[in-house]
Records
---
Amino acid sequence: MRAIAVLAFLLTFSCSTLNYENIETAHIFLEPAFNRTPEEALDVILTQVLNDAFRTDPRFKVENQIKTGETILIKPTILSFSLFSVGYDERDRTTEYRLSMTIRFELYRAGYKKPFKVFTITRYGFYEVSGSGTEIEERKKECMKRVAREIMREFADKLVFERVRRK
């Protein structure tokens, strides 16, 4: 019993030392997402998810204006978006789609024209295609948001890792 208490204490202590208190807050400026795909409203969804993700993450401070020398400018571009049918019923009708999205993030220092770092991230998700057209479209939008949130989480972690590694 005592060993379990010691192990729990060590795990709690080691996890608490992994928080981001020692990392200074990154000052970022978010540009709206640019959509290179024919999918409508994808740029709006991605921009909303991007804003929500960075404004709620304590590791970042979203700036309203670019400050030379301390602000990182982030330019997201949706490079690809695709749907594949992956689930079928006994009559060969599609029951499930796989949605795939690739986004490129270019990081600029304020005042520079060339990016200092570029990340390209691809993720996918699934959604069911039964019910009315409105229900299917709603599931598709939810899947887009879910995939975009996964991409944002990975991008934010990569951005923090790059900042720590550069120091």
---
Amino acid sequence: MDFKELKRKYRIELFTGAMVLGLVQVLVLFLQYLLRDSASGILYSILSWGNLIAIITVFVVYGRKLAAIYAPTPLGLTYERAFGFFILMSLLSGVIYGAGYYLISEVVDPAYFAGVQQEALELLVNSGNWSDAQIDAMKSAMELTHSLFVVIFSYVFVMLFQGGFVALFISAIVKRPPMPQPPPAV
């Protein structure tokens, strides 16, 4: 397999995996929003672990696909290459995840999310542990959540850490040595 073909397959798996991961995370977020009042204990527990389960599942599936692509190469799929792949996938999925959160919080039900922010602010004020300057800073920070760019950037940052942590382990699982090459004909 030539280098251009290898690169093309790598990109396809990267973008497909990132899109799948981002959309699954938005789906989990939307289910959490829809079932916020009626979720049973077991369903709520499953949904609260949904993002981690999604990251692990998508990393394993697309890591195996990547291992199959790199198997015929002289190095195979190294730990470092798998880790880099998962980090890039996490960053790209963070864009989709952030955009999905923004749509849910600003288009689907802005009143609900404004109420949640107001409740959080009231808890801070009532705790007595925060100064007026800190509460004003928190209000300013909450105002930033109405900016699409800020929300996407923060979800990309969050996915860098969540995906990076999971990638530390999954990269070790999916790494593969190269397939044995037949000896050259004499």
---
Amino acid sequence: MRRMNSSIEEFRRALVQAFGAAVSDTAAGLLLTDEGVQLHFALVPEGLHRIGALQLAMLRVEISVLSGDEPAAEKLIARVDRATQRGGG
């Protein structure tokens, strides 16, 4: 499970940008199929996080491995983490 400063739309856009047609929508989130691994991302919006005047969307992302071996799934999850990171300063 991950908590992210992102909306569902932003998370989906980052995955599609990184993985293209390997991403598809499900009733509860997104499905990613890549190199024999299938991951499901259940996406649950958690409202806004406020820091002064700044408002950030919060998203709970629950990851399920539907197929593929553990090392390959961990490698793909690491790629997803890099694809969905935001810059900082």
